[in-house]
Amino acid sequence: MMMDYMLPNKVMSWAEAWEVYYEQNGGALFKDLERYGIRPPKYQDVANDAKHHVSHQTWSTFYQYSHATNFHTWMPDEEEMAWLSEKYPDTFDKYYRPRFEYLRNEHAEGRRFYNNTLPQLCQVCQIPVIFTEKDDPTAFSHRQWQYEGERYHFCSEGCCDIFKNEPEKYVQAWLPVHQIYQGNCGGADVGTVVSEYYHIKPGTDNLEYVDSPDHRRWLEIQGKSPAAKHSGDKQDAA
User: Fold this and answer.
1) pLDDT value at residue 230
2) CA-CA distances (angstroms) from residue 161 to 99, 140, 154, 233, 236?
3) In a domain, 51, yes or no
4) Is residue 74 within 8 Å of residue 3, measured between CB atoms?
5) Can you give the pLDDT at residue 229?
6) Alpha-carbon distance 36 to 228, whole Å?
7) 143 shares its domain with 38
8) Closest CA relative to residue 209, chosen from 78, 104, 119
């Protein structure tokens, strides 16, 4: 997500990095280790397929939950979307550009979207259950399993398998979303938890990037005044 969306000077996409550092270099290493019976990890085919989707799905999620995090988010402008289209020719325009353009237009109309709930977390990796099935970017990858009368939720078949192998290790996991909704983080509502329990200053440490203190500082570093930037670049402000 950070490689694709948060770097002002992008070097390579996440998909390209995955191909270089895991598929090529890691693949060569596993090939050398075959003689010792060491094989690539299970579900690597799922991870390899996810390189086309994971950063976009993560950014979309952080965008709608930036009121519950400690950093700013924004919708990419046309130049950034063109770069994403080039780097992800088979997926970005088909699945993600329409979503981002809709959210950007909503923001321009004064309806910047924030999700007022909190996402389901995976019992094993504690990442929100936001990713999709291999070869089907329209279906969530969600698994569930019952253990000793309780139902547990997972982001993937891999995490579900890990849980089944060692459930006692993971049933005691401290899941922030569960704790927040149970009132164990200083309050039962997200706003109170964020400001009083996590000591995040809304609008200063999170929410929309454009017009934030961080945005104004970045413009100053570039030698541009915020007023000039906003009046000359409506697309960025959207």
Assistant:
1) 42
2) 32, 17, 9, 49, 44
3) yes
4) no
5) 43
6) 63
7) no
8) 104
Domain containing 46 equals 2-116
Is residue 221, in this structure, part of any structural domain at all? no
Domain stops at, among 88, 116, 144 = 116
Could you tell me if 173 and 167 are in contact, meaning their C-beta atoms sit under 8 angstroms apart? Answer: no
Size (the chain), residues: 238
Q: Give whole-number Cα distances, 192 to 52, 135, 175, 183, 202, in Å.
A: 36, 40, 18, 10, 11
Residue 231 phi, psi dihedral angles, 5° rounding: -75, -25
> Nearest 10 degrees: CA dihedral of 79, 82, 78, 96?
-140
pLDDT of 186 reads 86
pLDDT of residue 237: 37
Query: CA-based Rg of the chain, rounded to a whole angstrom?
Result: 20
CA-nearest of 24, 82, 19, 90 to 53 is: 90
Nearest Cα neighbor of 100 from 72, 132, 77, 66 is 77
pLDDT of residue 189: 83
Burial of 25: CB neighbours in 10 Å, binned 0-12, 13-18, 19+: exposed
131-174 tens-digit pLDDT:
999 989 999 999 999 999 999 999 999 999 999 999 999 999 99
